[in-house]
Specification:
Methane Monooxygenase Hydroxylase, Chain G, domain 1; mainly alpha
């Protein structure tokens, strides 16, 4: 009786390099672009969180500028940039309009 042995291995991008020289260059360019865009997107997320928590107009302006720049370079879609700026504005209004909360579980009302 013959038994078949199945060998599995992890597949990487290196395993699928194309035969054409120019296509190999395209793969490398795509990896560079992917890394650059990922870095820019992470920076936008960090700026958004910082602007919401700080609540300062300067942080909001800095974020809006960065989002517009990313949209113009094609890193994010223009509609996503508009949505982010809109949500930032709403978050800033919530932060300024929110009254100071009392300790959890305790009410300021007398019984």
């Amino acid at each position: 009786m013959i038994h078949a042995v199945v060998v599995t291995r992890c597949l990487h991008k290196e395993d699928f390099l194309p035969n054409i020289k120019a296509a190999e260059k395209w793969v490398l360019q795509s990896e560079k672009r992917e890394a650059r865009n990922k870095s820019a997107k992470n920076r936008l997320k960090t700026l958004f969180k910082g602007a919401v928590t700080s609540g300062t107009p300067e942080a909001a302006r800095q974020l809006e500028s960065a989002v517009d720049k990313a949209a113009s370079k094609g890193i994010v879609h223009p509609n996503k940039a508009a949505r982010k700026k809109s949500r930032l504005g709403k978050a800033m209004l919530r932060a300024t309009a929110a009254p100071a909360k009392t300790a959890k579980g305790k009410s300021s009302r007398k019984k």
